[in-house]
């Protein structure tokens, strides 16, 4: 693809491979285990389910504006981007290499519903291994940047991994949460969470809410160019992984609960944050939203 | 074993560990020094407040700089499933707790998980699975999702799943399966005093993350270690 087409590609619509191809400097991506090697799930056939040659994740290295980066991109269209054994092993291996090889950054392109139930124990353990490896990479001085704007969102263990990253960029379509809308509704009833109420889903878990409360550090248009610009900016201002940072995060999250713990809806939180017209937030374009964010103190911090 | 029985076995001379709202905190004399205890009791779900309370105790331990062992005792539900918790950023709060435990480990505090009841999903990842060594007592029941729920999501008959669970540890709930996956390192003997058993786990704790190796050796996660090693090797080679 030529430059302008690559830049305009919708992050939400693109596949994992298209995102990586367009995000990195042209022709620089090198995949660590390619689909030709067919390292597929040994477990899905037991459930009579089809496998993917890459098990729903693409990992490797490349260049971002000339800098060496390690990358992992989840494919939300295969099993909802869920963590299985091979999928998790690829991600963990990439992060462990980053601890020693010290690339200029690690980029995680999240697109996941969480653990793959058919391989639940392997997926859950891989999430724990991933979080440990991320903190080791961060402690070694490697920024780990999460990019969230895919179809499957960033749910379950994916949400916990996102919370372990140095910085997060999110688009309007990106959603970050632990329990998904359907999970809450199934367990607690539609009065607690009506999963068919899409506006409620976006308000509660969507990119704008996360950006306003400081749950993400950049808000992007749904284009590869916007995510690339955000990634470059965030690499340059990644917080350390140390006691001072975690104490600041403890204070930041406590203050959030103290201040907004009695709010029933995101619009109440936005009003208390000083947003003039909270009802207008969902329809704001990126520029108007950025101007709103610029006036919100909670959105700027080094406590992650 | 109940939490009270565990604490009595661990600290025969007495202890200062208390439980409030299902959250465990305190310490007791251990191996010539002190051991800190945090945790979740009574099948309690872990929400934003609980995660921050526990993380606060861990950060206080790191600040004290005594390198005392931290025991994370867990009998929890899953993460608290609610609109309010997600609105307030439950993913950040749970990750924060896990990061606090991982930081404590880096600062020289041995971190040991002790699973003595249920645990699942986000609560499991943020607590027991964020320790260096995870031990369990017989009767512990970790799970990602129970089989009837798996049946609903996968649209497979429950009977078939129950049959598959006999031979396939990778998806089925239960301690034996988490042991086979490598997530749980060891099962303790409830008939013997727990203190020496925990002390020996601390003394022998692995240097790095060995869960994928254990998973291969025990057959519950046959390929994860090999895949991770292959990817890491190729990326290091450049």
Please outline the helices and strands.
The complex is a heterodimer of chains A (304) and B (238).
Chain A: H1 3-8, H2 16-23, E1 30-31, E2 57-64, E3 67-74, H3 85-101, E4 105-110, H4 120-139, E5 144-148, H5 157-162, E6 167-171, H6 181-188, H7 198-205, H8 207-213, E7 218-220, H9 224-235, H10 243-260, H11 266-272, H12 286-294
Parallel strand pairs in A: 3-4, 4-5, 5-6, 6-7
Antiparallel strand pairs in A: 1-2, 2-3
Helix pairs in contact in A: 3-4, 7-8
Chain B: H1 3-10, E1 16-20, E2 23-30, E3 33-46, H2 48-64, E4 70-79, H3 83-87, H4 90-106, E5 111-115, E6 118-120, H5 121-126, E7 133-136, E8 141-143, H6 147-154, H7 158-167, H8 175-181, E9 186-187, H9 194-203, H10 211-217, H11 224-237
Parallel strand pairs in B: 3-4, 4-5, 5-7, 6-8, 7-9
Antiparallel strand pairs in B: 1-2, 2-3
Helix pairs in contact in B: 2-4
- What's the total count of β strands of chain A? 7
The helix content of chain A is 40-55%
Strand order of the largest sheet of chain B: 1-2-3-4-5-7-9
- In the residues of chain A, how many domains can be counted? 1
Which of globular, elongated, flat, extended, rod-shaped describes the shape of chain B?
globular
Question: What is the CATH homologous superfamily assignment of the domain at 3-137 and 188-205 in chain B?
Answer: 2-enoyl-CoA Hydratase, Chain A, domain 1
Number of helices of chain B: 11
Q: Averaged pLDDT of chain B, please?
A: 95
Element-level helix/strand string of chain B: HEEEHEHHEEHEEHHHEHHH
Can you identify the CATH superfamily of chain A?
A: 2-enoyl-CoA Hydratase, Chain A, domain 1
**C-alpha end-to-end distance of chain B:** 51 Å
Q: Please tell me how large the radius of gyration of chain B is.
A: 18 Å
Structure annotation, total helices of chain A: 12
Give the strand order of the largest sheet of chain A, numbering strands 1, 2, ... along the chain.
1-2-3-4-5-6-7
What's the pLDDT, averaged over the residues of chain A?
A: 96
Per DSSP E runs of 2 or more residues, the count of β-strands of chain B stands at: 9
The parts of chain B where pLDDT drops under 50 for at least 5 residues are none
Pairing-aware structural class of the strands and helices of chain B? alpha/beta
Largest inter-chain contact set: A-B, 86 and 80 residues
